[in-house]
Write a structure and sequence with these properties.
2 copies of one chain form a homodimer. With 341 residues, chain A is α/β, with parallel strands linked by helices. Chain A has 16 helices and 9 strands. In chain A, 49% of the residues lie in helices and 11% in strands. The radius of gyration of chain A is 19 Å and the shape is globular.
Chain lengths: 341, 341
């Protein structure tokens, strides 16, 4: 039994004295103790060494006491396991030297035995659970198939992922083949993570908002729905589609336990578009953590009042930025803990 | 009198046999005749030489016969005129070597005599009008103050414009001072363009969608509203806020003649959010021009049916991409001309 089950209660839609809080990318570069580890070990060594990954996972909890931990990992471990080389270049981000551009490239992508291939992830989960000692739940995550395709075809980050979209719109059957392979792999991966001990999972559809509503259905949502169908009876699932306000209605009927929203969607719009009954998670603009601690506390209070304390998980609208002052993070977390309805 | 006034009729909300069509960035890199000029002259030479700018402006009209021309220029001529150095680096985009980061930087930004400073723009307008010979209207444009601030503070393009937002959220008074200078300059600039002969103007708020609805009001919309108030009696004004679906309601009451929408906002959502009465412009995903010509024609027909033929201007949801095949552009334009309701 977890000592603090606020997060799981919110996912079940149960009433709470105050909403739970965590931050996307809370185990990351804004923390000096993370930067110490980053100096010594490269990105994939940190991901692949259970002692390091679990240490990084609990660093923010020790400092700020969030209501949930999120496993330190990366969405691109999936393409890696599927036979696609992924590098993480300093000051550049992900780089895939052989991006998918042809049908032959798609054929070469394998659906791996994800249980053996990503064993280091499950070990990191077990190590994190031990360190958390039943205090708070642990979240595991995966990228959406569409978001993974974006990186696999573009070969790197992008404002528009125009090469990924060109691939989908000129070779839709190849794109769907790749998306199905990604979906099949992700389902097994998330089930294995749940078996290893995560208490909930989140799908990051970071680039879903680059698609029109019609194309979103075709190239992103129908694969996410497959994942929800396969996983929802094993653990609660949160879907975060950045820029996907237009899909909140359909998402709310999907079997997901909660929906993430970004800061462009007001609480009122998010509740309206999602039908008013599903748990929502978000949505302070990560850049707003540059405001003063007192302004941050004020904004968090308004945000909770706007979303309502129930069926709500306080978070940012995307990952925390690297150069946010620690006092500002503390103000964000503390404001939630001090919240009085 | 213009021989083809479909575009102006749509801006007035008058009934038309078919909607008008143009494309953002229609004078650009997808055209071989543009690339010929690009080989010989650098970016700002093209902008600053009226003969070149007017030639580029009418190139797409000669080839495809759109219902409006848009002056070849750049939103960053405004910061340049305001004493901020702007370079256009090949394969990189805009680069501002001395970005605005301090109050002193803001103080150094001048509100120029835009009539003498950007004389080359007005000459390019006159030359374009002569070449167009009253066939179709000419559109002039400006960036929104917020979008210009993004580049001036960030110093280059960005996915998140995090430095621009950090500046606004840590030094809001400096940000507002800069935004007001930009607004004052832009108002005089657009009036001068209208005096020189453009038939309508468009405000590009390319990065408005990076802000929360509350921050959008504070850092972007209130300045756009000032511009509309000052310009609307001189010429019709179109506001295009990329990602600004959440502001369409307020925008519809602003005095603008039309609102641009991007492809993430369906026709139905756009009509609903904008109150159903204002002319809308958009919104095919520019990447969708990678589809086959027959698919493009089908999508254009559906789009016109969804928006309705009246109070509607067919366009893309953002600028055309450089590597779109000419036959696909032709299919897009022809589909509108062949439209039968």
């Amino acid at each position: 039994m977890l000592k603090n089950d606020l997060f799981l209660r919110a996912l079940k839609g149960q009433n709470v004295a105050r909403p739970p809080v965590w931050m996307m990318r809370q185990a990351g570069r804004y923390l000096p103790e993370f930067m110490e580890i980053k100096k010594k070990y490269d990105f994939f060594t940190r991901c692949r060494t259970p002692e390091l990954a679990s240490e990084i996972t609990i660093q923010p909890i020790r400092r700020f006491g969030m209501d949930a931990a999120v496993l330190f990992s990366d969405i691109l471990v999936i393409p890696q396991a599927m036979n696609v080389e992924v590098q993480m270049k300093p000051d550049f981000g992900p780089y895939l030297p052989k991006p998918i551009r042809t049908q032959r490239d798609v054929d070469n992508v394998i659906v791996p035995d994800i249980h053996s291939e990503l064993n280091y992830v499950y070990q990191a989960i077990q190590a994190s659970k031990e360190k958390l000692d039943n205090e708070i739940p642990l979240i595991g995550f995966a990228g959406s198939p569409w978001t993974l395709l974006c990186y696999m075809v573009q070969g790197q980050g992008s404002k528009t992922f125009d090469k990924a979209k060109e691939f989908c719109f000129t070779n839709p059957s190849g794109a769907h083949e790749l998306l199905q392979k990604l979906t099949d792999t992700t389902i097994e991966y998330l089930k294995a993570k749940i078996n290893a001990g995560v208490d909930a999972v989140q799908i990051f559809d970071s680039w879903g908002g680059l698609l029109s509503p019609t194309d979103y259905q075709e190239f992103s949502w129908k694969y996410i729905q497959q994942i929800i169908d396969a996983v929802k009876n094993h653990a609660p699932i949160i879907v975060f589609g950045k820029g996907c306000w237009f899909a909140l209605g359909e998402m709310s009927k999907s079997g997901a336990s909660a929906l993430g929203v970004d800061w462009t969607c007001s609480a009122r719009n998010a509740r309206y578009l999602s039908g008013g009954n599903i748990t929502l998670q978000g949505n302070l603009d990560p850049s707003r953590l540059f405001s003063s601690p007192s302004d941050i506390k004020k904004m968090v209070n308004e945000m909770i009042n706007d979303f309502g304390k129930d069926k709500y998980i306080v978070n940012l609208g995307h990952g925390i930025l690297p150069n946010i002052p620690l006092d500002n993070v503390k103000a964000f977390i503390d404001a939630v803990k001090e919240y009085k309805s």
